[in-house]
Amino acid sequence: MPTSAPVHDYDLFVIGGGSGGVRAARIAGSHGARVAIAESDRYGGTCVIRGCIPKKLFAYAGSFSGLFEDAAAYGWEVAPPRFDWATLVRNTSDRVAHLESIYRRLLDGAGCAIFDHRARLVDRHTVQVGDKRVTASRIVIATGARPFVPDAPGIEHAIVSDDAFHLDPLPERIVIVGGGYIAVEFASIFHNLGCRVTLVHRGEHVLRGFDVDVRQALTGHLAESGMTLRMENTVTGVEKQPSGQLEVALSEDQPVRADAVLCATGRVPNTSDLGLERAGVELAPSGAVVVDEYSQSSVPNIYAVGDCTNRVNLTPVAIREGHALADSLFGGNPRPVDHEAVPSAVFSAPPVGAVGLTEDEADERGYDVDVYTSNFRPLFHSMTGRRVKDFMKLVVDAESGRVLGAHMVGEDAPEIMQGFAVAVKMGARKADLDATTAIHPTSAEEFVLMREKRAR
């Protein structure tokens, strides 16, 4: 007996080719669904094209400047090093292009139809993609976020983080506006590559949302590194001079001259001009798609994953959300994503790693907490003479002894924190850490050696 033709062209149409969207498409395809995905730029999204990957490669490049200097303390004679910005830009671009090709191959291997066009909703089941209209039983919005630029006269002369990987030439002086992870990462990168960096931030300390001790520790490190901090300041205007230089007016200080101004003042959900309102999809005041724990929007057949939902805006979270959604819809395994105790890292100099609750968050949730901290010079710098100290902190529930949060500022913090994220997620107690034998000599051993509670 002949089967009836499908009601729609596709079982799933994904709008957005970033990490979350690609994972949702691939997994749905592996479950046998008829899948299409549309991306108007390059596949890989913010992380691969203009975020995590190129930024980490740039951070690696910057780290060599300190290593060359430190090598002398260990007996190495290093000829005066010379850095070539064009080589870094070219090699990074090549690596990004290679990763994008991998994303495309993975989608093709999963049987997904690939559209290199911007897609917009016509209604809850219809998508306009390029000059073609297609229909889908279910639609996923995975369009990520875009840089937010504050309103100030002349701000059009500034660049955003997307542009920082293609500057020509490398600026001698750069003003970076913002105090979040993007701002401090680029401030560290450009400082280590030899630029004179001025960081302008409206707050007293960088990294709002991180533990207060972490914020204070990193702010101190940045100041001691030699970059100029203009805290508790805002940019009130940018004026281009006849020489081509930029003069940046500040709310509380004298103007600053620079060759480039980078606005790293946050990101907002990239949901405008997608036809979401026309399809009846509810948006938050921020523009984020409002979803439930299964990533379902207010329209039953339309879903959203990743930064466009403004839940936990991290690439691994978007990937988990996309995977869980595909399993829920087509794999017979409905499951939400747990957004508690998600580990994170900031690839500043020095880097930051964190998982679980900050001290303030624990207080707000009503925990009676014990706090343990350690602040010490790592063994490596006992030879170099650098005034560098690692900072570590544990936030512990006084009643149960469970570790609620772990935080670190120091070399290898992100690598160290990945392991402790497993422990925190499993509900490890302070007694479990105390019972663990230290690996000596390492910085990580401090997490199992802290014994004295800090006065609160």
Brief write-up:
The protein is of the alpha/beta class and 456 residues long.
- Total strand count, please? 22
Could you tell me the CATH topology label of the largest domain: FAD/NAD(P)-binding domain
Number of helices: 11
CATH class of the largest domain: Alpha Beta
The CATH homologous superfamily of the largest domain is termed FAD/NAD(P)-binding domain
Major sheet characteristics: 7 strands, mixed
Describe the structure.
The protein has 456 residues and is an alpha/beta fold. The protein folds into three domains: 199 residues, 3-Layer(bba) Sandwich (FAD/NAD(P)-binding domain); 111 residues, FAD/NAD(P)-binding domain (3-Layer(bba) Sandwich); 99 residues, Enolase-like, domain 1. It is 29% helix and 23% strand. It is built from eleven helices and 22 strands. It is globular, with a radius of gyration of 24 Å. The chain starts with 9 loop residues before the first strand and ends in a 22-residue tail after the last helix. 43% of the residues are buried.
Based on the model shown, name its key terms.
29% helix; Enolase-like, domain 1; FAD/NAD(P)-binding domain; alpha/beta; 23% strand; globular; 456 residues
